[in-house]
Amino acid sequence: MCLAIPALITSIEDKEAEVEIGGISRRISLWLTPEARVGDYVLVHTGYAINVLDQERAEETLEILREIAEGVED
Amino acid sequence: MKYITEFRSSELGEGLISRIQQRSKTPTRFMEFCGGHTVTIFRYGIRQLLPPTIEMVSGPGCPICVTANADLDKAIALSQMPGVIITTFGDMLKVPGSRSSLEKARASGAEVQTVYSTMDALDIAEANRGKSVVFLGIGFETTAPTIAASILQAEERGIKNYHVLSLHKVCPPVIKALLDSGEVELGGLVCPGHVSTIIGSHPWEFIAQEYGIPCVISGFEPLDVLQCVKMLTEQVEKGESRVEIAYKRGVRPEGNIMALELMERVFEPSPARWRGMGEIAGSGLKIRSEYQRFDAEANFDIKTAPAVEHKGCICGDILRGVKAPADCKLFGKACTPENPVGPCMVSAEGSCSAYYLYGDGHGG
Fold this sequence. Notes:
The complex is a heterodimer.
Chain A: E1 5-13, E2 16-21, E3 24-29, E4 41-45, E5 48-52, H1 55-70
Antiparallel strand pairs in A: 1-2, 1-4, 2-3, 4-5
Chain B: H1 10-23, E1 28-34, H2 35-43, H3 46-49, E2 54-61, H4 63-66, H5 69-79, E3 84-88, H6 102-107, E4 111-114, H7 118-127, E5 132-137, H8 144-157, E6 162-166, H9 172-181, E7 188-191, H10 193-199, H11 205-210, E8 215-217, H12 222-238, E9 243-245, H13 257-266, E10 267-274, E11 278-287, H14 296-299, H15 315-319, H16 343-346, H17 351-358
Parallel strand pairs in B: 1-2, 1-7, 3-4, 3-5, 5-6, 7-8, 8-9
Antiparallel strand pairs in B: 10-11
Helix pairs in contact in B: 1-12, 2-17, 8-13
């Protein structure tokens, strides 16, 4: 029930945004993430963006995962 | 970066599993609190891939599953009132209360509409000014801010016929209750990712500090869960207990300040009833008196007969992590996703539903 899906913001009008989720366009609310901008990926939960995803952190995590998988961490 | 496929790489997954296998020496038990994690673990067969030293148990992190029959009965009673339209997330329809379900109520004439979002419920209220639209507020900290926002929007748009039955629950107090009961011994906690998106990492600190249990906040893709298990294993082997965020792209230590503010503005802490655990102080969210006109409890005289439990159903024990679905006599026989007896079989994130759909996780 706490499912939230990454979606790309394509346009913003006031407190609502148009997002693309897997090729489908949907209208969501930005009440909880007023900082969101066009081009951001947000986590969408029941029609509300609950967070702007952090690309830098995501890339860092993938790098850490690669290091763990290859056994070169620490 | 699409934030999904990158975190499903089987090559990286295999690497992570072999590191976990190499590193884990001490027998331990990790609880995944959240039903969303249970689904990832089952869908990707993660339990079978972990070394025998690591046991995974599912926790009470499924809002639908933990809603007590007495509260479900209130929702069903509301649906029977003339002029009331119930709006709810779809998963709630089939959940059996003491004597009926919303689905059965709808079949016998009640107006029950499923919605994807509270925004849809607001539109229904706007289009049906002569009726009262009640939204069933069920969910954890992930969902509660969206419902707080809907109440503020109703105020802004002048929608006076919108009400919320607030059955929201917050997570840290239930984990405390679970640990204090002494029924389940845990070596680590997979903390819920999207609850933490809202509340941040600080509310989990007491588990690491006072109970000495390692805590790692995890995302929901298979690599996220494996990374989390690896980090928990590291802490176990080093004898440490800290709160760490594995799901850094989705969780900041301070959480979502705006969402927390809206939640605080509309709700205040209250006791809440949990299936299998009874009433837990401070684990619920009540609508503040300033917003009472939107509170279904305050605006309708909801009368229900005393709640009764489903005979033979052990959902309560399963939610506390002390029994597994396979221990239930009804599982897969009298209780299936098509004809569920208990909520853990209804919700897509319930343990029973996950066991039923993907096997018992040990080759079943």
